[in-house]
Write a structure and sequence with these properties.
By secondary structure, the chain is of the alpha/beta class. The chain is built from twelve helices and eleven strands. It is globular and about 70 Å long. Bound molecules: pyridoxal-5'-phosphate. Belongs to the DegT/DnrJ/EryC1 family.
């Protein structure tokens, strides 16, 4: 059986060293030394500032909206994971979907601009598969309409774009460190803020609204979204291997491209390849389901990631028309990708794809 992904398990000796330290200190959570160390090491590794680690990627989005004062409506893409609009609705924010670019599969800036109304309070594009959004256009729209720009950058760990970290783009960029993501802490997430003030406000928010500046008061409404020391330990042990993880995954992607080029389409890549996902586009919905069943029969588990498009679901469906997203959702498949996958297995997966075209 070949699953679409397999969580990375770090070297046990490395992990145990961190766990021993936690047990000796008996400091298990509340901005402990490992959370602080992971924050510093991730800022250095990613080349970003103002990183706040949180309990998961969904809370990262919720806290980012709250910290930037988003309450009414936000414009986003229907071609994403349910957590993007889900985190909005949970905050009482109404998601408005605009259509995607058929080449990059990211939110189309001109469609996003058309979807802006008087009630819009943020733009929330997603760097789907770690593929960089057209940041210059989004920044231009955000400035003209005076809207915060919040990227769901859950897939964009380590991506470089135009000479800097893609995570530095926007007023906030959120990360997911879920077990199935490229870099993980079992459950976890992060927010990269442009402004230090927003970071400090969010830091208080994730700790019940408590703040060291006002020890005798609760200055704002908060939630509990802190990362624990155990999760940070997993992150630190995984970070030791991240270059190797990315190199291995990127090599497998190259192998897939080599085998499938001319047979299937690939989304157009913007920014560096971080090895997060291996998406392919089939010619039609029929072809996509034929390939899927054939792979399933061979014990290979691809994923229709993301299908259905969210504007067509019961919970998030509305009048927003996004024909490109609907079409892409019918034809997309993500193929298995994780470091232990062999080139032999990749070739075997490709054979099963190609025999159904
Ligand atoms: C994984 C993911 C999330 C949610 O992250 P969690 O850490 O699982 O809460 C949000 N948005 C996108 C695009 C994701 O892929």
């Amino acid at each position: 059986m070949i699953q679409v992904t397999k969580p990375f398990i770090p070297d046990r000796k490395t992990l145990d060293k961190y766990l021993d330290g936690i047990c000796e200190r008996a400091w298990l959570t509340n901005n402990g030394p490992l959370v602080q160390e992971l924050t510093q090491r991730l800022e250095d590794y990613l080349g970003v500032q103002n990183l706040l680690l949180v309990a998961n990627g969904t809370l990262a989005l919720q806290v980012a909206y709250k910290a930037l004062g988003v309450e009414d409506e936000a414009v986003t893409t229907p071609f994403t994971f349910a957590a993007t609009p889900g985190s909005m609705k949970w905050q009482g924010i109404t998601p408005h979907f605009a259509d995607i670019d058929p080449n990059t599969l990211n939110l189309d800036p001109s469609q996003a601009e058309k979807a802006i109304t008087e009630r819009t309070q943020a733009l929330v594009p997603v760097h789907v598969y770690g593929n960089a959004c057209d940041h210059d256009s989004f920044q231009d729209i955000a400035s003209r309409y005076n809207l915060p720009l919040i990227y769901d950058a859950s897939h964009a760990f380590g991506v470089q774009y135009k000479g800097e970290s893609l995570l530095s783009c926007g007023d906030a960029a959120t990360l997911s460190f879920h077990a199935t993501k490229l870099f993980h802490t079992v459950e976890g997430g992060g927010i990269v803020f442009k402004n230090r003030d927003d970071l400090e406000r969010a830091r208080s928010m994730i700790n019940f609204g408590q703040s060291p500046e006002t020890p005798n008061d609760i200055a704002s409404v908060g939630i509990n979204a802190k990362m624990s020391e155990l999760h940070a330990a997993m992150g630190l042990a995984t970070l030791d291997s991240i270059d190797q993880i990315i190199t291995q995954r990127a090599a497998l992607i190259q192998e897939y491209h080599h085998c499938l080029k001319g047979h299937v389409e690939f989304p157009q890549r913007r920014g560096s390849e971080n090895g997060a996902y291996m998406p392919i586009l089939l010619a039609s919905e029929e072809q996509a389901s034929a390939v899927d069943s054939s792979l399933q029969q061979a014990g290979i588990r691809p994923r229709h990631y993301f299908s259905p498009a969210l504007h067509e679901t019961t919970t998030y469906g509305n009048d927003d028309a996004c024909p490109v997203a609907s079409d892409i959702a019918d034809r997309i498949l993500c193929l298995p990708l994780y470091p232990e996958l062999t080139t032999h297995q990749v070739k075997w997966v490709c054979e099963h794809v190609c025999k159904n075209l």
